[in-house]
UniProtKB/TrEMBL annotation:
MF GO annotations: nucleotide binding; oxidoreductase activity
Residue ranges the record marks as coiled coil: none
Domain of life: Bacteria
Gfo/Idh/MocA-like oxidoreductase N-terminal domain: residues covered: 2-118
Name of the protein this chain belongs to: Putative dehydrogenase
Species, as recorded: Saccharomonospora marina XMU15
Protein family (similarity comment): Belongs to the Gfo/Idh/MocA family.
PANTHER family, A to Z: BINDING ROSSMANN FOLD OXIDOREDUCTASE, PUTATIVE (AFU_ORTHOLOGUE AFUA_2G10240)-RELATED, NAD(P)-BINDING ROSSMANN-FOLD SUPERFAMILY PROTEIN-RELATED
Domain GFO/IDH/MocA-like oxidoreductase stretches: 127-246
Keyword tags: Oxidoreductase
């Protein structure tokens, strides 16, 4: 198959390298808002170069991978679907709920698949946890603990357009909690603090946050996030049940050391960032999209799935700002 790739920033270039090695993909056409960057990526990887988005669509790809800035996502997804082209889009679908709902409305019933990039659904540990829950191995779940801890903040110019820590970062935890447990979040209570760079506060954002989620079966989920985890990139999901407890993301590279006597430190080194931690998941995710394009399966993560995680993020942001519990029904 021939795929198009829109966006050649960090995540787009990482996707391009994966697409290059997928057996099902014969060629890739690359475009970017910065043509010079797209040309450089195409040249480095032996891919076709498109001078712009119009030229990319004129190349008539069998599928489209969208890895542009968020504000371009809705237009590209809708344009691809209207052209009958299956599309993979990095999260989020749009910058806000209204934009997400518009994309869903304009693409539903069209018969063209849209896959949203929540890569943890393809991570081996998260897959094993989902199976353990589904098979009842943990008994009754009573508590979940989810963390996404970045080792260092992103560039200052990124924060005002990121959507905030809950929408940009913790939304992955929200999706993972829903997907692994098969339950819905019904209420949240969230807090956030700023003790780092001033640009977070100037943008109305926080650099560290926590949220308590209540699921529809009264399971409690605790979610924490920070931009300042100096020990390294740390993503974990702990599931505690009446019969057993398990953890995703605990291995020799987990940046957490015990101070108990005789307990060795992790062999390390810690993962420097998300692209390293989830490399296998990204490969599986794009391989799944190739199957979607080939018609072998339906989208494993639809815009409607992404919307549910976005609702939780939106409720957390409202809760943080107003310092009160917020029901998900308030933001629907």
């Amino acid at each position: 198959m021939r795929l198009g790739l829109a966006g050649t920033g960090r995540i787009g270039t990482a996707h391009a390298r994966i697409l290059e090695d997928l057996p099902a993909v014969e060629s890739v056409v690359v475009a970017d808002i910065d043509p010079a960057r797209a040309r450089a990526t195409a040249g480095a990887l032996g891919m076709e170069f498109a001078a712009g988005i119009d030229e990319l669509f004129s190349a008539r790809p069998d599928g489209l991978v969208v890895a542009t800035a968020t504000d371009a996502h809705p237009e590209l997804v809708i344009r691809a679907v209207e052209a009958g082209i299956p599309v993979f889009c990095e999260k989020p679908v749009a910058a806000d709920i209204a934009g997400t709902l518009d994309v869903i409305e304009r693409t539903k019933g069209c018969g063209v698949e849209v896959q949203i990039g929540f890569q943890r659904r393809f991570d081996p540990g998260h897959l094993a946890a989902r199976s353990a829950v589904a098979e009842g191995k943990l008994g009754r779940l009573h508590t979940l603990r989810a963390t996404t801890l970045d080792p260092a903040p992103p560039p200052a110019e990124y924060i005002p357009r990121s959507g905030g820590l809950f929408r940009d970062c913790s939304v992955h935890d929200f999706d993972a909690i829903r997907w692994v447990t098969g339950r819905e979040v019904v209420e949240v209570y969230a807090l956030g603090t700023n003790r780092g760079a001033e640009f977070f506060a100037r943008a109305g954002d926080v650099d560290t946050a926590a949220a308590v989620l209540t699921l529809d079966d009264d399971t409690i989920a605790l979610v924490s996030a920070t931009r300042y985890n100096g020990a390294g990139y740390d993503v974990r999901l702990e599931l505690l049940g009446s019969r057993d407890s398990i953890a995703v993301g605990v291995d020799e590279r987990t940046p957490l050391s015990s101070v108990e006597p005789g307990v060795p430190r992790p062999a390390g080194p810690a993962y420097p960032h998300f692209l390293d931690r989830f490399q296998a998941a990204y490969v599986r995710e794009l391989a799944a999209f190739a199957d979607v394009v080939a018609g072998r399966c339906a989208s494993p993560c639809t815009p409607a799935d992404a919307l549910e995680a976005f609702y939780v993020a939106e409720a957390c942001e409202l809760s943080r700002r107003q310092r009160r519990p917020v029901s998900i029904s308030e933001v629907r």
